Amino acid sequence: MVSLKHSTNGLLHVAAPQANGQPPTRDAGSTAVIEAHDIAKIYRIGDIEVRALDGVDVTIHRGELTAIMGPSGSGKSTLMNILGCLDQPTRGSYKLDGVDVEKLNDNQLATIRNKKIGFVFQSFNLLRRTSAIDNVEQPLIYAGVAPRERRERAKAALEAVGLGNRLKHHANELSGGQQQRVAIARALVTNPAIILADEPTGNLDSKSGAEIMCLFQRLNEEKGITVIFVTHDPRIAQHTRRVIRIADGKIIGDDPITDPIVACPDKALPDPILEKLEHAAA
Amino acid sequence: MLLRELIKLALNTLAANKTRAFLTMLGISIGVGAVIALMSIGTGVQAYVTQQFASAGANLIGVVPGRIQRGPGGGAFGSQAPLTMADYRAVAANTPNIVDASADFSRPAVFAYANNTSEVNVTGILANFSAIRNWNARLGRTIDEADVTGRSRVVALGQTVVNDLFEPGEDPLDKIVRINNVPFRVIGVMESKGSSFLGDQDAVAFIPLTTAQERLFGQQAQSVNGERIVSTIYVQAANKDVTPAVISSIDALLRERRRIPADEPSDFSALSQDELINTFGAVTGVLTVFLGAIAAISLLVGGIGIMNIMLVSVTERTREIGLRKAIGAKPSAILTQFLTEAVFLSLIGGLVGIGIGLGIAFVVSQVADFQPVVQAGAIVLAVGFSVAVGLFFGIYPARRAARLNPIDALRFE
Ligand SMILES: Nc1ncnc2c1ncn2[C@@H]1O[C@H](COP(=O)(O)OP(=O)(O)O)[C@@H](O)[C@H]1O
Ligand SMILES: [Mg+2]
């Protein structure tokens, strides 16, 4: 197995010159993309109070690749939804890229979700009866990107996830792994600062899961995109450099991974597709 | 974000969900089409009835023995002391504001020619019949003054009788037909009036009144005191406005002549066309209301259809809205998209519905005696209602979903 360090350096010669801002190294400097403090989410069902999150502090820096682990019902999805601005916490403060999220109105939140965040769901959430490229174009429509440029960027994003030959396929004509890659293309087509994925490999077999991990690693290493994903598969979590453990709505562990697994097989490495993506997004 | 983009997005969504779009449009089209068709049929029937009576002659008043109840279910009641020639002459001489007056005597008779027979009413008329009843001969002539004074055995046949008695292409003029075994010479064929709810108006034959009373029906045409009987007295009023006054003076004159005590109702009836139209108008009005009710039900059913389809897809649509919000759609963008969809469906559905309605009206006009009358009001009502239903059920769930947290919309069940 090739070590991550080597493969990273090999690719950086291609991608780094266009990388935005700082190089995506492991200790990504001190710029915090996510600063959440004392986040709580409490559901009340009748007399019963469910503390889905109960005082969570998370700080994640630019360029990190992080896994969140924990048993079912521990609050992982709740946390991801709050971090992704899809949901509001009952209490606590959350700064995304320096912006106080709780002060934003509906329209500003929509803009944040559109421009800064790419969210990937366990169940893909693609539009039915709509082609892969049309699905990937959707966020760009809301971003006000002109049709021609939209097409090009959506095509580049699909090529980046290895689906350049499936542009016109509808979701029901694609395998689960391919559908999830369409969803990832949709998440990264707006060139977001951060990709959040809630159990992206949960519905996939191990081979498709590894493909997704390869994609995340390359996006992280080569483009410096901050990636956070939820998994309860310890082996999947070993593909990152940091694992946050959560149980009963509280963080119970936050450990670095010293020797991450590299998901990308040797021969998947050379294609400079990510460079293309960057050109299109520029 | 461009409106054009949102409209395109809405149209793409419709194209991607053709069945749903089609069914929604169908609901709107059926509602609109049914209302327009039924309302125009109802109005057409009413106009037809009015026109049927109007074609009997302008400002015509008919006097018949017996008391006619107004309204549906009416009929002649009471002692039917017949009207006489003396009554007719008195009315003609003493009623102010009339153009002319006429009388007829009508009884069923058997017509025979060659090996053919026909049973219709034969009607004795005066020479002024054609002018008052607005009915002339198509071929030859009708009864004239000389026929009446000479008690001639001449007859003007209605088209139905001609069809019954003569072979196709045979010229009936100057042929001798037998009416109750009495030979009559055919002098003319009447204009065809077609058949209607009033029956076959061409199943008629006209002979001089004097001939009918004195030569053909004899005893049947005499009252107990030996006076000549008439079936109907016709009076043509000078104009529409004086018609009620003319009716009351006829009424007064005949009551006096027939010595009817003041506290008893008349044993005859003087009716104007307007009254007949009103009587039938009440019936056709009920018909219009009835058709209107059916139309309203169709509209409601169409509306429920639209609602159903919109609500069935609400889960799917709410999730879609959740996803769109998650990838950065603003509430206004979502509303615009769904509004566009609903407007588009409603408009196309409405237009197709108008087409269906007009199509049905056209088909009816081809097969029925009457012309459906398409009213702008019906179109506006039908389209307005359907579009309102389409818009409400298209937008209301979208509005609700657009306000949800993206994650709540995504989880919607
Ligand atoms: N909308 C909700 N209403 C009530 N309780 C909820 C809701 N969403 C999540 N919960 C509860 O919050 C807890 C955490 O849920 P979740 O974040 O989905 O867990 P995980 O993703 O780690 O499996 C669970 O106990 C769950 O039942
Ligand atoms: Mg979960």
Word description of this protein:
The complex is a heterodimer of chains A (282) and B (413). Chain A has 282 residues and is of the alpha/beta class. Chain A has a domain of 182 residues: Rossmann fold (3-Layer(aba) Sandwich), CATH 3.40.50.300. Chain A contains nine helices and ten strands. In chain A, the strands form two sheets. Chain A has a six-stranded mixed sheet with strand order 6-7-8-3-9-10, sandwiched between helices. A four-stranded antiparallel sheet of chain A has the order 2-1-4-5, covered by helices on one side. Chain B has 413 residues and is an alpha+beta fold. Chain B folds into two domains: 175 residues, no CATH class; 132 residues, no CATH class. Helix content of chain B is 54%, strand content 20%. Chain B has a six-stranded mixed β-barrel with strand order 5-6-13-8-10-9. A two-stranded antiparallel ribbon of chain B has the order 2-3. About 2% of the residues of chain B have low confidence. Chains A and B meet through helix 3 and helix 4 of A and helix 1, helix 10, helix 11 and helix 13 of B. Magnesium ion binds next to helix 2 of chain A.
